[in-house]
Amino acid sequence: MEENENDILRRVRKIEIKTRGLSDEIFAGKYHTAFRGRGMSFSEVREYRAGDDVRDIDWNVTARSGNPHIKVYEEERELTMMLLVDVSASRMFGTTGRLKKGMITEIAAVLAFSAVQNNDKVGCIFFSDRVEKFIPPKKGRSHILAIIRELVGFRPQSRGTKLSEPLRMLTNVNKKRCTTFILSDFLNPMRDREALEDALKIAGSKHDLVAIRVYDPREAAMPDVGIVELQDAESGRKIWVDTSSRAVRDHYAAAWCRHTEAVGELLRHYRIDAATVATEGDYVAELLKLFKQR
């Protein structure tokens, strides 16, 4: 059932009250510590002094002046946070009273309010197997509320997933280094592996990438509920499964473990910090753990 405008606005307000409080009380300082100082901008050129890093030598100025000079950088006073949000059909799954979509929305809202607390800009890219919507980075509460409203009410054109697409767009639209959170269930990244690895390599060299993987417990372990029909939300493919079979349940769990390890290995290879959050879990604890590790 589609939500009307009043329903959407009520949900936006409810999410704001909950997530802004968490951001104010818990995350603002942790966000500042974890991500502030990662962005450095060119400040000036000065003569080389004993102890300076030779990698900062400006060879053009050195050649012209005849004396060694180095480039001096300073911490950027204004940073940008980008949220890459998975809006594919698989986000509409949930067996714990909360859809993956709801969890992703709350986490995105907390991160956005944390950035605003530090006077940083926040932008957003919604993606399925294409870039569905781009919201340019801006500051302020009204901008964050507009993002939350889109998170709640946005209806994508496609059902599939292709993570390389938003990463390419991120590289194209953000020339300055920014902190980027990828919020997804990461169910189908291997279908796009070659393009994804290329996009991760390029985006990761320019930006600070962080992955937040959201999953439902039923995706990890299948209960014994007899013969049921399962459907892939993104492809529409259906299959009958005998969940009373221990061998079937074990095979299902093993496949999930292999997939989880493959995703983890991919992220580690490109040095992308990551957190995994279950729809029944405490995302506050997982985010704090992630921030502490940085």
Question: How would you describe this protein?
Answer:
It is a single chain. The protein has helices at 5-35, 59-65, 100-117, 141-153, 164-173, 193-206, 217-220, 246-269, 283-293, and strands at residues 40-47, 69-75, 80-86, 121-127, 131-138, 179-184, 208-215, 227-231, 238-242, 273-278. With 294 residues, the chain is of the alpha/beta class. A 6-stranded mixed β-sheet has the order 5-4-3-6-7-10, sandwiched between helices. The protein has a two-stranded antiparallel ribbon with strand order 1-2. The chain has a two-stranded antiparallel ribbon with strand order 8-9. The longest helix is centred in the N-terminal third of the chain and has 31 residues, at 5-35. The chain is globular and about 80 Å long. The model has no long low-confidence stretch (mean pLDDT 88).
